[in-house]
Amino acid sequence: DEVGLRPFRAFTIGGRGDVITAVDGEPVESMEQIVGYFNTQKPGAEVILSIYRDANTIEVAVTLAEWPDT
Description:
By secondary structure, the chain is mainly beta. The protein is built from one helix and four strands, in the order ββαββ. It has one helix at 31-38, and strands spanning 19-23, 26-27, 46-53, 56-63. A four-stranded antiparallel β-sheet has the order 2-1-3-4, with no helix packed on it. The longest helix is centred in the middle third of the chain and has 8 residues, at 31-38. The radius of gyration is 13 Å and the shape is globular. It starts with 18 loop residues before the first strand and ends in a 7-residue tail after the last strand.
């Protein structure tokens, strides 16, 4: 949310949202792969997300925070 990622909403016309395709250059195909990669990093680490948005791929730098308690 803080870096401006657009959420995926399956039922929003024309608003499909962002799809994370890679983390630090490593392709990912599932949320489990993304979470698994994040779990290998420490809070405060910066990772680069490759995002598919509106038929383009962009890169976004993200600083990881602590996982929430909930």
